[in-house]
Amino acid sequence: MITMVAGIRLPKSALVVLQFLTKRGPQAPRVISKEAKVPLRTVTFALDRLIDTEICQKIPNLGDMRRTLYSVDHEKAQAVFSSYGLGLR
């Protein structure tokens, strides 16, 4: 299912990943996949969509440069959640 927010089309998986990152802070895709119980390919697709729409950004993982972390722009995330009528649980 793909929905549109302010001209931005986001799949449902992107909302799941966005909500996870908003609650847990910066995480690597494998951690998101394992803990949110979403396939890794789906997580990477969702992260690509969130980065393209500038809701998320990549940040270097200084502890292990092979594993990029992803973080959320909280203001944009809040705008997305409010436009869907979602709140953080």
- Domain tally: 1
Total strand count, please? 4
Strand order of the largest sheet: 1-2
Helices, by number, come to 4
CATH class (first level) name:
Mainly Alpha
Unreliable residue runs: 1-5
If classified by CATH, what would the architecture be? Orthogonal Bundle
Describe this structure in a few short sentences.
The chain is built from four helices and four strands. The chain is α+β, with helices and mostly antiparallel strands. β1 and β2 form a beta hairpin.
Description:
- There is one protein chain.
- The protein has 89 residues and is α+β, with helices and mostly antiparallel strands.
- The protein has a single domain (8-79), classed as Winged helix-like DNA-binding domain superfamily/Winged helix DNA-binding domain (Arc Repressor Mutant, subunit A).
- It has four helices and four strands.
- The chain has helices spanning 12-24, 29-36, 40-52, 74-84; strands spanning 2-5, 8-11, 56-59, 69-72.
- The strands form two sheets. It has a two-stranded antiparallel ribbon with strand order 1-2. Strands 3-4 form a two-stranded antiparallel ribbon.
- Helix 2 (29-36) crosses helix 3 (40-52).
- The two termini are 21 Å apart.
- The model is unreliable at 1-5 (pLDDT under 50).
Keywords:
89 residues; alpha+beta; Arc Repressor Mutant, subunit A; two-stranded antiparallel sheet; 4 helices; disordered N terminus
Summarize the topology.
Layout: E1 2-5, E2 8-11, H1 12-24, H2 29-36, H3 40-52, E3 56-59, E4 69-72, H4 74-84
Antiparallel strand pairs: 1-2, 3-4
Helix pairs in contact: 1-3, 2-3
